[in-house]
Every structure is written in C-alpha cells, then in structure tokens.
Amino acid sequence: MNKCTESDIQEMLPDLLHRALAAGERQRVEAHLATCESCQEDLEVLRTVKSAAVFAPAIDVDSVVRQIPPYRTIVPATERPARTRVVSWLVAASLAVVVLGGGSILLQSNGPLTSRARGQQPALSIAKVPDATKPSLAESVARSRTIVQPTIAPHPHALALAADADGLSDGSLVQLMNDMDGFDALPGSEPDPVISVDSGDSL
Amino acid sequence: MNPSPEGRPEETDMELINRWRAGDGRAATRLVGRHSQALARFAASAGERDGIEELVQDTFVRAFASLDSFRGASTLRTWLFTIERRLMLDRRRAERRSRETVPVEESDHVSEYGALDGLIAEEAQERVRKSLDALSPTQREVFTLRVQQGLSYREIAEVVGSTEGAARVHYHNALKTVKEFLKDE
To answer: What is the pTM of this model?
Structure first.
C-alpha cells in the first residue's frame, strides 16, 4: 500500500467523522478516499477509536445547574471612585478627630501659659497700644520737641510686647506665635521711619 | 445554526450566555445540557475514573463564575475543556501529595488510564484502550480531543497549552502508534 501524500486530506479525516466539513471539502475528501487505501485505513482506525470512546457516566444536568450561582453584574470601573470617596471622607474625619483631640490635650498641658497669655499676671503679655492717630495739638508739639531718641511710630492697630520672652520655653513660644497669628494686625518687622522735628515746620 | 427539536434555530452559546446574564436560568440548563457529556467523555478519556460528575460540576461552576472573562475568541466547549483539564491536573497533584509518592510523570497517566479496566466491555474498546495506553499523556489528550471530540488543532493547542504545530505532530505520532498497535493485535 502506497503512503498517501495528500497531507491536507489526511488532516481533514477527523473532521469528516464529525461532519465538520463544508460540502465542497467533504466531496473532495470522499473522492480521494475512493482511490486511496492508506487514507481508507486511517479513517477506519479513527472510526474505531471514536466509536470506542471510554465509558463516561451520564451527567445530571439539573444537579449541576443548581450549583451554579446566579449571575452578578460586575461593578463598572467608573463607579469605583464613589467607594473611594467614602473611604477618603472617613480617613479625613479620623484625622480631624486626632488633630483636634491632640490639640486639646496640648492646650491642657500648657494651661499656665495660656492663662498667663490671657491676662493673669503675665510674664509676657500683649496689650493694645493706645490709639495715637489723633493726638492733641499740645501733645504733638510737646512730643516733637522732646523726642531725641528714635522711636517706633505706633501703628493704629499695633500690638506691643509688655515683657521679654527670654524665660519662655520653646513650646510656650510656639503657643505664643500661634496666638499672635490670630490677631487682626501685627507690628511690622521693620520700624516705621522716625520723624525728628526741630522746629514747628512740620506742623 | 442547527435547528432545535422544536424546529426553531438552535441558539448559539453566546446567545445563551447573554440570556443567562440577563437572568434567564433556563439558558444555563441549555448550556450545561449541551456540553456536560462531552466534558464527561473528555475526563474519562484522560484517565479520570472517580468523581467525573463532580469534576464536570466543578467545571461549570468555575466557568459560570468567570463567564465575564470569556470573550468568545474560542468556542465555549474549548474553554470548558481548558478549565476541566486544569481541574484534573489540580486533582492529580492533590492526590499525589496525599499519597506522598514520588512525582509522577508520563507513567502516572498510563496507570490512571489503566484503572478503567472493567468499564470497557467490548473487545474493540479494549483494544483501543490498550492502544491509547501506549501513547504519552499529551499524545493521548491531543488524539482523543481530535478524534473523539472533533476539536481543531488550534482549539487543542489552547486546551493543552501548546501550539498548533505541536498538536499536529502529537496527533500524527499518536495515529501512527495506534494504527500499528491495532494492526499487530
């Protein structure tokens, strides 16, 4: 028996068994089989193997289906940030509680400084400078003639330290700076120009 | 599309999948009924003896749970075979660990396949079984998927995790071995 050289026909023999060939292909294979003993033999082997499929138990379809969970729609990716936002808010709220709670504890621990800073015999106190925007004429004349040392002209809403801060701890200084941040106006870091008047020309 | 027994055109697997996604439980029944016996035969051909029903059931449960990952690039049956084959490999690994035996290679499949004695009654089946015993596990998988299940080489390559060319070579080597075995018998 001659060996078949039509490899594409040989490849299609299992498909012929499973009736998976298009009409044209099937006719071509069947025409070849009529004259090729090698392919006839191959097809017989394949038919034997196919029909001798090993025993397999019958499957109870209903019992299988009962085990299948219902379809659950997967949450689209665009909706995921909503969950993230909730988590973010929770984290932010937690941080706020921690910060506020920690701040309260810090204030409690610095109680004496706080009370001093608020007017009880302060070692360091902050007092408002008297309003000097509208001095009387007599005061102005007198001041212009007596000023010999440069002085800082007070700002209308300026503040002045009434005591030195040498004795304060670092924590107290930080607290003081924080308190100062809360005021409407602070003295400028640079002094205002001093006007020294020797005569009444400036008046 | 083949006609159904009622004369209506048979729904495709993808149409049934979409119906199941829409909440139609009967679509799942149709899909399981359509493919369950092929899965059982494949498991038996691959040497599974016990728990084939459970294996088929696990295959469907896993497949339906991850049906969103099935894009239809291959046929549903090929995809199911792939899942079932992985489950069989997992099961064999677990059995090997439980037996605490040395890692089993080619001979393991042969011995499991040999356990099918008694299930095959007729003489022709016995001869075929013996001829398949002479194949390597991969040859046997490829050969039975091609001859008994009718899968294409591309589908077989997908199931066994190989290439079309390798599947073709395995098929022809297996056919030659089986042919010689049956001729000598």
So the answer is: 0.56
